[in-house]
């Protein structure tokens, strides 16, 4: 391992190139996560509802000394991040391994299914390209180091969260909570922030948006944001300390307001309709991770 790190240190272009290719492959998997995780969650919720309803009905039937038939499994087929294999959603033809190559597979197919010519969304290669590019940048920024490995893992999760929130307005606990605990563990050795700053950051990140949520709800009677947003901000506090939180909140609010106004102006969004806030927190947190100190110093120098 030491020799490999030495080679990468001497040949940074090789490290950056391999990082891009590896990350593009991970980006292909992230497309699966973005699509399938919400489906898996909805299936779990429905199965739980069916289970509770069947228990309630059984109690009613028991009171009348009758027997209830066993509830039917609403989703008998196995469905997770691996099974079933990738297939065209229209004709159900399995996608060949060569067509699953990141970015290149979509280009080879010219953006269409090989069997039925149904258009394949350009979002798939775009996610792979963005993932590869961001990790290649981290490879250049951090070099072959522990910081590179950790920030890459964080970046992968942020991309998945962004895609899911854009599609479903949902930030799954299955991703945000492990990230939160990982950030606290990472900083036991003060990798990015001291342990105390990380603990305060996690609490302050959650409570700051939680407070805004309840003030807004008390004033308007409406939910201004979801609990997943609180947890995502807490993630950045846990990873990089409470000091980054004002910058993350400012940047995410500014970008969110600009995009929201633009969507209303161009009639892509009706006033009052909700928009996902998670992608803005994720983007602002990633920027703060790389340039937070420089941005803060520049702002303070202008005062």
Automatic annotation (TrEMBL):
The keyword Metal-binding does not apply. It comes from Shewanella pneumatophori. It is a multi-pass membrane protein. The chain crosses the membrane at residues 12-34, 148-166, 175-193, 199-220, 232-265, 277-300. It comes from the Bacteria. Its EC number is 2.1.1.-, 3.4.23.43. Residues 154-261 form the Prepilin type IV endopeptidase peptidase domain. Residues 21-142 form the Prepilin peptidase A24 N-terminal domain. GO terms for cellular component: plasma membrane. It is found in: Cell inner membrane; Cell membrane. Belongs to the peptidase A24 family. Plays an essential role in type IV pili and type II pseudopili formation by proteolytically removing the leader sequence from substrate proteins and subsequently monomethylating the alpha-amino group of the newly exposed N-terminal phenylalanine. This is Prepilin leader peptidase/N-methyltransferase. GO terms for molecular function: aspartic-type endopeptidase activity; methyltransferase activity. Keywords: Cell inner membrane, Cell membrane, Hydrolase, Membrane, Methyltransferase, Multifunctional enzyme, Protease, S-adenosyl-L-methionine, Transferase, Transmembrane, Transmembrane helix. It catalyses: Typically cleaves a -Gly-|-Phe- bond to release an N-terminal, basic peptide of 5-8 residues from type IV prepilin, and then N-methylates the new N-terminal amino group, the methyl donor being S-adenosyl-L-methionine. GO terms for biological process: methylation; signal peptide processing. The keyword Ribonucleoprotein does not apply.
């Amino acid at each position: 391992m030491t020799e490999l790190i030495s080679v990468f240190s001497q040949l940074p272009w090789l490290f950056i190139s391999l990082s891009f290719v590896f990350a593009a492959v991970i980006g292909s998997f992230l497309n699966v996560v973005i699509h399938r995780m919400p489906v898996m969650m909805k299936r779990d919720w429905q199965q739980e509802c069916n289970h509770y309803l069947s228990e309630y009905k059984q109690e009613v039937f028991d009171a009348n000394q009758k027997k209830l038939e066993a509830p039917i499994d609403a989703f008998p087929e196995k469905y997770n991040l691996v099974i079933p294999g990738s297939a065209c959603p229209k004709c159900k033809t399995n996608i060949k391994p060569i067509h699953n190559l990141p970015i290149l597979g979509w280009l080879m197919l010219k953006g269409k299914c090989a069997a039925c010519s149904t258009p394949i969304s350009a979002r798939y290669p775009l996610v792979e390209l963005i993932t590869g590019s961001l990790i290649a940048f981290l490879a250049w920024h951090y070099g072959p180091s522990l910081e590179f490995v950790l920030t890459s893992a964080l970046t992968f999760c942020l991309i998945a969260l962004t895609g899911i929130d854009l599609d479903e307005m949902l930030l799954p606990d299955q991703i945000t909570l492990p990230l939160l605990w990982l950030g606290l563990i990472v900083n036991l050795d003060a990798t990015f922030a001291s342990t105390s700053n990380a603990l305060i950051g996690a609490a302050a990140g959650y409570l700051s948006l939680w407070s805004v949520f309840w003030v807004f709800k008390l004033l308007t009677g409406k939910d201004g944001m979801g609990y997943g947003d609180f947890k995502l901000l807490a993630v950045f506090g846990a990873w990089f300390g409470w000091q980054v939180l004002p910058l993350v909140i400012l940047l995410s609010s500014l970008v969110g307001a600009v995009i929201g106004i633009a969507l209303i102006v161009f009639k892509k969004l009706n006033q009052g309709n909700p928009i996902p806030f998670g992608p803005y927190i994720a983007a602002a947190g990633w920027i703060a991770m790389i340039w937070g100190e420089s941005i803060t110093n520049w702002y303070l120098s202008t005062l």
